[in-house]
Specification:
Elements lengths: L1 H41 L22 E4 L13 E12 L3 E12 L3 E15 L2 E16 L13 H4 L9 E13 L3 E4 L3 E2 L2 E2 L16 H11 L8 E4 L3
Antiparallel strand pairs: 1-2, 1-10, 2-3, 3-4, 4-5, 5-6, 6-7, 7-10, 8-9
Length: 241
C-alpha cells in the first residue's frame, strides 16, 4: 500500500514538473505562429517592380542621353593606404535601347584594382514608370602591380586609363534582370537598391504602400532615398562631352 502511495505521489510530482515545460512549449509555438503571420502578411509585396501592367499604355516621352548617379569616395576620410572610387551611368538610346555602366577603382598602398561592368538591354515606359530589361552583361577586371599614379577623378574613361599589368579579355554573359524606375522628367529613381547589378532588400518600393502609385508614402520614400548623401537611389540627367 505504501508503495502505491509513493508511486502515485511521484507520478503527480513529475506531472506537475512537466506542466511548466508544456506551457512554455505552447507559448513558443504560439509566438512562432504569430511571427510567421507577421512576416507573411506585413512584409512588403514588391514583385510589381519587375514588370509593368499589361493594361498600362506605353509611351516614349523620356529624355534620351546620360543619367549619372551621384557618387562619393567610399574610403575612410584621410586614409593614405586605401582609396575607393566608383561611378554608374545609364545611357538611354534611340529605339528604347540602353546601356548601364558601373566602374570601381581601388587604390591600395602597393597596388590598384579595377572592375568594370556594363549591362545592355531595352526599356519600356508608361507615364512615370520605366522598366529596364537587361539581356546581357559584360564584365572586365584587372590589377596593377604598383600603385597607379593616376587620379581617377580627372579621367573620364577609366577602362582605358587604368594601367592593367595584364589585360584579360572581357567576359560576356546572358542576363535576365528586370527593375522598375520612377521618372520625374529629369531623373530616374530605382525602386529597390541596386549597384553594379547587385541588389539589396531596401529602397523606395519597400516603404511604399500601393504598386504603381505616387502615394504619400511613395513620395516620402522617394525624397528620403533620392537625397541620401551616401549612395543615393537616383540617376540625374547630365550632358557628358
Amino acid at each position: 500500500m505504501v508503495d502505491k502511495i509513493l508511486s502515485t505521489s511521484n507520478f503527480k510530482s513529475s506531472l506537475q514538473e512537466s506542466r511548466p515545460f508544456e506551457r512554455s512549449g505552447r507559448i513558443l509555438l504560439i509566438l512562432s505562429g504569430f511571427l510567421l503571420f507577421l512576416n507573411t502578411n506585413c512584409a512588403p509585396k514588391i514583385d510589381w517592380i519587375r514588370s509593368l501592367p499589361s493594361d498600362f499604355p506605353r509611351d516614349q516621352k523620356i529624355t534620351l542621353g546620360f543619367y549619372l548617379r551621384p557618387t562619393e569616395k567610399k574610403s575612410a576620410y584621410g586614409s593614405k593606404d586605401y582609396h575607393l572610387y566608383w561611378k554608374e551611368v545609364i545611357h538611354l538610346q534611340p529605339n528604347s535601347k540602353f546601356t548601364k555602366t558601373w566602374s570601381e577603382w581601388k587604390v591600395y598602398e602597393d597596388h590598384s584594382e579595377f572592375q568594370w561592368k556594363e549591362g545592355k538591354g531595352s526599356f519600356e515606359k508608361s507615364t512615370d514608370w520605366v522598366l529596364f530589361k537587361t539581356d546581357s552583361i559584360t564584365e572586365f577586371n584587372c590589377q596593377s602591380k604598383g600603385k597607379a599614379n593616376i587620379d581617377p577623378t580627372i579621367n573620364k574613361d577609366w577602362k582605358k586609363a587604368f594601367p592593367c599589368s595584364n589585360t584579360p579579355s572581357p567576359k560576356d554573359r546572358l542576363a535576365n534582370h528586370r527593375l522598375l524606375y520612377f521618372y520625374d522628367g529629369k531623373s530616374l529613381f530605382p525602386l529597390q537598391y541596386e549597384s553594379g547589378y547587385k541588389e539589396s532588400d531596401f529602397g523606395i518600393a519597400w516603404e511604399s504602400d500601393l504598386p504603381y502609385t505616387k502615394s504619400n508614402l511613395f513620395e516620402i520614400a522617394k525624397l528620403k532615398y533620392g537625397k541620401k548623401e551616401f549612395q543615393p537611389h537616383v540617376y540625374n540627367h547630365v550632358k557628358l562631352d
